[in-house]
Give the backbone structure.
Amino acid sequence: MAFWRPWEAIPSEDSNLNRKTKNFHIRNKHMHVQSQHIILNIYNRLKRENLEQCNYKLIQRISKLTEVSVSTIYRITKDGVIDHNIKRKEKNKKFHQIDDGDTEVIRRIVYNFYKENKVPTLEMLREKLLNHYPDYKYKSLETLRGILQNVGLNI
């Protein structure tokens, strides 16, 4: 409840209610899927009850009831419910399948480079792996980088 100010007119209960709900429309926000379902259910129910009423009048009535903009309600009734929280598939990473023996070999090679006072690069590491370890099956530099990050080494 607001304080009475003598320089203002005495407010009535209706004017406070109108002031609070006048600019309540949701703008520039994604509506939850549940809210979209509720609006769609209200639209379907009112359409069944009032077959002779035009579509725009129904949408205006729903806008007044839910305090959601007419354009949003029109979009929901036209397109249906839009889910903005679609989960993305995780990429299938090959280096998750590498065993502990291969990771230890890679780690040992990196440490040997440092013992020789050489800064290892991905090209040097791949060349050493392909020349000295024929069982090493990953030839891509990006895969090797992913394996090193998974092991905890950043080159």
